[in-house]
Every structure is written in structure tokens, then in C-alpha cells.
Amino acid sequence: MPEGDTVWNTARVLHRALAGATLTGSDFRVPQLATTDLTGWTVRESVSRGKHLLLRLTAPDGDRRTLHSHLRMDGAWRAYAPGERWTARPAHLIRVVLRSPGAVAVGYHLHELALVPAAEEESLVGHLGPDLLGPDWDPDEAVRRLAAQPEATVADALLDQRNLAGVGNLYKCEVLFLRGVSPWTPVRDVPDLPGTVALAQRLLAANRGRWTQSTTGSLHHGATSYVYGRRAQPCRRCGTAIRKAELGERVTYWCPVCQPGPQPAS
Ligand SMILES: [Zn+2]
Questions:
Q1: Whole-number Å distance between alpha carbons of 4 and 204
Q2: For the whole prediction, is pTM greater than 0.85?
Q3: Among 131, 192, 143, which Cα is nearest to 167's?
Q4: Mean pLDDT, residues 166-170
Q5: How many CA atoms lie within 13 A of 21 on its CB side?
Q6: Which member of 2, 65, 121, 145 is catalytic?
Q7: How far apart are CA 247 and CA 32, in angstroms?
Q8: Which of the following is catalytic: 44, 89, 144, 250?
């Protein structure tokens, strides 16, 4: 599940592969960029903002632009050595290929792919709340934004990237289990909002630098989460069957005993 930590890792992979390099070729396989050619452009850096990826480029004439992409549920970037086979995903999912002397970056099933003037980056990511893994992470501002929607369910509020940027469905479910809070709890009734925000940041930060997302401390298959993806399996704390239900546009997983508070009709 691409959440803030996965996107942060992806930005680092792209940075290590391409930063400082002058591109020797590009191949965009999306209609809106089909005629774009980045040959001769230099890659300055690759950064993440929440779940958005920003590849900052300089054209041969000095023009600065940013290649924006979003992974959503299924997108990925991979870096390959020149000549290496591209094996991560089927070829028909390729949306862009960027070639440099030392590496080839391949973007699979990317969303919102756009090349914008550097000055317009804000129009793409300016709406985001504080970035949990950003250099300017501001927990007080994240708490302030969450608290400004007291009637929203805490589950929806944590997923709203305008409040804080980087939490996806997995971390949402896991944070609320670890805090003992029902996903349907209105924000105003969450006992310790700063503690909840701080825990979300710690969980994402702990998974930087690896691709396995674990909230339990275990990297063993089937042992990496408390509730996410564990419908009908016993709660790791109390043994009660973990439940799964629709909440807003996403499914949510929770333990009805460890997470008291509002529960959906079953
Ligand atoms: Zn439980």
C-alpha cells in the first residue's frame, strides 16, 4: 500500500538513481505528455510531499520544471541499471521511462503525471497539511487542522491529506488500534489528538528505508499488522475477531473490544 513511507522511499530511490544526471532519453506513454522529450535535461533532486512525488528538473535553457506523479494504490517507480531487464511490472503498465548514463527509471501505473513550471509546484501540493516525513513536519499544525473538523470521524480525518500528509488506510487502521480508539469516533471525542498524531509519525518514520510496512515490530509475513488485512482473525491483544467495514470511501479494520466507542450496526 503506497503511503507516506513508501513514497518517501521511492523518492530516495529516484534521487540516488538520477540526481545530478543529465537525461539521455525519455519516453512518456501517457497522452498528455506523449510529445515531451526530456533529453538533455538535468535532474536536480527527487523529493516526496505526503504521497506526491516531485522530480525537479532543469532544461538545457535553464528553465526549471517539476515532473509530478502520484502512486495512489498501485503505482510504482523502479530504477534499473542500463541493460537490466525491467521486471517489476508488466510492460503495458509503463507510463514513463527516464534514461541517464548510470540508471534507467521506469514509472509504472503512475497517476496525475504532469510536467509543471517549478513555480507552480504549490498548485499541486500546496493544499497538503504538514508532511509526516517532511523536513518541516509540524505536529501542532496537524493537530490544529484535525481539531478544526470536530464532527468528522477520526478515521476520515486522518486520511484527509489536507490535515496531515502521508497517512493511508493501513496506518490509519493501525494507529487507531494502538490508541484504543474506534474509527467512528468524532475527532472532538478523541482523548489525545497530539498523541495520536505523534504515533502516526513514529510508525511511518520507523518504516523509512525498507519496503515491508510493519506496525508490530515484526517483519514476518502475516505478522506485520495488528488489524489491517486481518478480518476475522483473532486480535493480537484480546483474541476477539477483527472486523472489517466500509467507512467513507475506504474499508476499515478494527477490534470492537480494544477500540470501544461508536460501532457500526452489524
Ligand atoms: Zn482486541
A1: 7
A2: yes
A3: 131
A4: 94
A5: 21
A6: 2
A7: 34
A8: 250
